[in-house]
Specification:
Elements: E1 5-11, H1 33-49, E2 55-62, H2 70-77, E3 82-92, H3 99-107, E4 112-118, H4 122-128, H5 134-146, E5 151-158, H6 165-177, E6 182-187, H7 206-222, E7 227-229, E8 232-234, H8 241-247, E9 251-255, E10 260-263, E11 266-270, H9 274-282, E12 288-293, H10 296-308, E13 314-315, H11 321-324, E14 331-334, E15 337-340, H12 342-346, H13 348-352
Parallel strand pairs: 1-2, 1-9, 2-3, 3-4, 4-5, 5-6
Antiparallel strand pairs: 6-8, 7-8, 10-11, 11-12, 13-15, 14-15
Helix pairs in contact: 1-2, 1-9, 6-7
């Protein structure tokens, strides 16, 4: 299915803020939950009144969407117009997931869960500041399946302090034992302003991360889950449609504090804090904080940068002929497109500087 448009809903609440997290999340705003969800529904209803068309995908992220009452969250999603076979994804923490929650989600039209596992090694979870344990991951997967959710993703991170190559291999093999249709594996990054940024001794090592990327790619590919984007692998037919839409520069509307939107080259984003967001919505005022419009050249270059990260690659003329020799081993000719090799995926940002 070609995904043309989507909607993103931001839930900013967390039980604990992870040391590496730079997202718009808060641990001390839970008293706003009901007002916030009502505000998001109001924002959606106003967008519909202004002509918002049905979307092909909905993605609920955060923060921790699984922390808010599931029936109230479904009440928000009910306001979003969608096509009949739209993909509807909710991010969840393993220790929040219950069978009742999954049944509410499934009855409300949710057909995809993205579970934030990060690691199956207790000491690595502790280093990342996560609140769950490995046992809760298996239990959450059981609940997802028992509720009849059609597909799900397990999200893992490599490169945390104290994580050996053996720890990482055990995590990947443990993930595969749960037989997920989709796996996302991200290298830990150091974001300015986070506690991780202030402790250099915990920063990831580039060579270590490269070894772990090669390992996860080899194991997931061998399991019948080929890569379709630098950090994503899936059984054929289980690729995340919402992500494919954003990588393809589709239109999407973001709802909630700090949520971003994109329509026909114009991008804008909402005010960052939930307090300010709720006050504005309740006061009948706009929640947009700022925006920008990309010109044709900027949109074209962005489209190449995004496409290069996917297995669809970029057309022949995306690189100067003089650059191809220097990119040997990093890109390969597949069909009629230049596609990153595994080595190229490790240097995707550097390769993307060559596209034109």
């Amino acid at each position: 299915m070609a995904v043309r448009s989507g909607a993103y809903v931001h839930i900013p609440f967390c039980a604990r803020r992870c040391d590496y997290c730079a997202f718009a999340t808060w641990t001390d705003r839970h008293h706003l939950t009901t007002r916030y969800l009502a505000g998001v529904r109001t924002e959606i209803e106003r967008a519909v009144e202004n002509g918002m068309e049905p979307v092909d995908s909905i993605f609920v992220g955060g923060g921790t969407p699984s922390m808010v009452p599931p029936d109230e969250l479904i009440g928000v999603l009910d306001a979003i117009p969608r096509t009949g076979d739209a993909e509807v994804t909710i991010e969840c923490n393993p220790d929040d997931v219950t069978l009742d929650m999954m049944q509410v989600f499934r009855a409300g039209g949710v057909n995809r869960i993205s579970l934030g596992v990060q690691s199956l090694a207790p000491h690595v979870l502790a280093a990342l500041g996560r609140t769950h344990d490995p046992v809760s991951v298996g239990r959450a997967v059981e609940h997802i399946r028992a509720a009849g959710v059609p597909t799900f993703n397990l999200d893992i991170i490599y490169g945390a302090a104290g994580e050996s190559l053996a720890d990482w291999e055990a995590t990947v093999r443990g993930i595969l034992a749960l037989d997920p249709p989709h796996v996302s594996a991200y290298g830990l990054t150091v974001e300015p302003g986070t506690p991780l940024a202030t402790t250099p001794e915990r920063h990831p090592d580039d060579d270590d991360q490269a070894d772990k990327y090669e390992m996860v790619d080899e194991l997931l590919t061998a399991s019948g889950r080929p890569w379709y984007e630098v950090s994503n692998w899936a059984h054929p037919g289980h690729e995340c449609r919402h992500n494919l839409m954003t990588w393809g520069q589709g239109d999407y509307r973001g709802f909630g504090c700090a949520a971003h939107s994109h329509v026909s080259g114009r991008r804008w984003w909402n005010v960052r804090t939930p307090d300010r967001y709720v006050d504005l919505v309740e006061g009948g005022r706009p929640v947009e904080a700022s925006g920008e419009t990309l010109d044709a050249d900027a949109r074209h270059l962005e489209s190449l940068h995004l496409a290069l990260r996917t297995r669809d690659g970029v057309p022949r003329d995306a690189f100067d002929a003089s650059d191809i020799e220097q990119l040997e081993g990093l890109v390969e000719w597949v069909g009629d497109r230049w596609v990153l090799t595994r080595a190229g995926r490790l240097l995707a940002n550097e390769v993307s500087l060559r596209v034109r």
